[in-house]
Amino acid sequence: MIHFALSKGRLAKESAVLLKSCGVDTSVLEQDTRELVLKSRDGKYGFFLVKPSDVPTYVEAGVADLGIVGKDTLLEEEKDLYEMLDLRLGECKLCIAGDPTRKDALTNPHLRVATKYVNTAKRVFAERGEEIEVIALHGSIELAPVTGLADLIFDVVQTGSTLKANGLAVLEEVYTGITARLVVNKVSLKTQAAEILPLIDKLREVVG
User: Fold this and answer.
1) HSE, side-chain direction, 13 A CA sphere, residue 40
2) Tell me, what DSSP letter sits at residue 185?
3) What angle do CA 29, 46, 116 make, to 5 degrees?
4) pTM, two decimal places
């Protein structure tokens, strides 16, 4: 059996549509259930529904053979696995954003940056030779500069509408082309190559 780790929510649904087009029986993912461990009716595939940030961990550990997760999460988690394919789902950007009227925000020597991408933010600013105070948040990141908790935020941006609604704007696009990626456990790719490689080829054809 091939096991997938899928991000709970919208990405899991989009992933199911994509996998179904490749001949994977994903009917179990279409059911309204709170179960987190599911098995296809034909017994060929298992699905673990986990938090997006946990997908790389399950794949690296070999609990899941494959996973579908955003590139932003892969950058943050830095796990030892193979990134096989850009699935072109949910495209967005990782950006530095803040109050556009504060021209000094990016040059402040004591920057406070709010983000859920703690490791990535530290790496990005360290590469510039800048020390920052990272404020780890897990929701409503845009609120941080509005309330004075932080000078800037480092977050994914899709349309920018939430930023605009809160008086913020993108100050710099750090990573573009942030999309969902197919990742594979290194051992699984060797031991289950006969099952995994044809599936990857089908996905590559569908994605184009």
Assistant:
1) 17
2) -
3) 70
4) 0.92
